[in-house]
């Protein structure tokens, strides 16, 4: 509305000024024509009829001699003095002016035309009383009222349009206001249009989808973690109570309690590692030879099955060494735990990626379970025994580490065994998903 006012007010003022100017110009032009006709008769020596008849709507006409004596006049100007004291010069014989000789200071738009350059030449004054539209504020008042009505109408239309355009925003706001932590299933309405508001609604719903999934995963993780932690804690308590009741078996109770403590420590360590990964903390990356990194960790860890190495030298990656080493160790532990007789580790370059594959000849993983094994605290039916040492977090840790480096971790199950493959971008080809 303010913009409309700023735009229209100058337009209204200009319309008032232009209208007044056009009216005055038309009177002066008509008066000039009439005065010129009378002046022509005087130059030609013709007798000017007295009273002078009105011509072209110009009703005030006077022929004035030097000194102010009126030689001839129209009936409308009969009882008036000279319409103007202005006397055109011999070389500037036409003058347009406004004079106010009428009673009550009313004015006349007058054109003065000198008949000849001679010193005793009379002057013809022709004019018309200034119209009310010019001399009063009537025109300005009419224009102002029209502007006010037009600005009000524009404001009303803009308000209606803005209200209709912003109604979806209010619907989105109202729906978000009803969103609570205990009910994340609500979604904002999506307009059918393809404008910015519709895109905002779709983006908001995608964000709500991700939020709901994240909260559900967090709740499930908390439930699983509490369940996993309860088991070793209950075991420790049971062993201590057993030792209290049977002091002679205290050594066995302490040994069993220590085993449960080790498992509890492993779970807590893995949980802390995942929490640090989820916090996306800034860490220093360095370029390392993937074959050397894999070989050093194969050699450093005790293994039930000795791994066969097939390592291509010179395959380098940029990584946080401690994190990538943790992922490799988890895969080695998993392979050693499930292998029957063989484990192999392969490193090679594949296009713009570095690949590290850990294979074991254990039981194949059903296709339906291949995605599930990377979820936290997931154990397949064939690997549920906690006595085998797994916390259920190893593969989840490995995948999160690899994805944080812009890579992927996939499982390939074959009749002869299972292969886990890490694919990482080579230096200079880091992917957007890397942190």
Describe this structure in words.
It is an enzyme of class 2 (transferase). It is found in: Cell membrane. The chain has 435 residues and is an alpha+beta fold. The chain folds into 3 domains: 2-138, Beta-Lactamase; 196-277, Signal transduction histidine kinase, dimerisation/phosphotransfer (DHp) domain (Helix Hairpins), CATH 1.10.287; 281-425, Heat Shock Protein 90 (2-Layer Sandwich). The chain has 8 helices and 12 strands. It has helices spanning 2-43, 132-135, 138-177, 196-245, 250-278, 290-300, 321-338, 394-404; strands spanning 60-64, 70-73, 94-99, 108-114, 123-129, 286-289, 307-311, 316-319, 343-350, 353-360, 408-414, 417-425. A 5-stranded antiparallel sheet has the order 2-1-5-4-3. The protein has a 5-stranded mixed sheet with strand order 7-9-10-12-11. Strand 11 (408-414) and strand 12 form a beta hairpin. The model is unreliable at 382-387 (pLDDT under 50).
Could you give a short description of this structure?
Helices cover 47% and strands 17% of the residues.
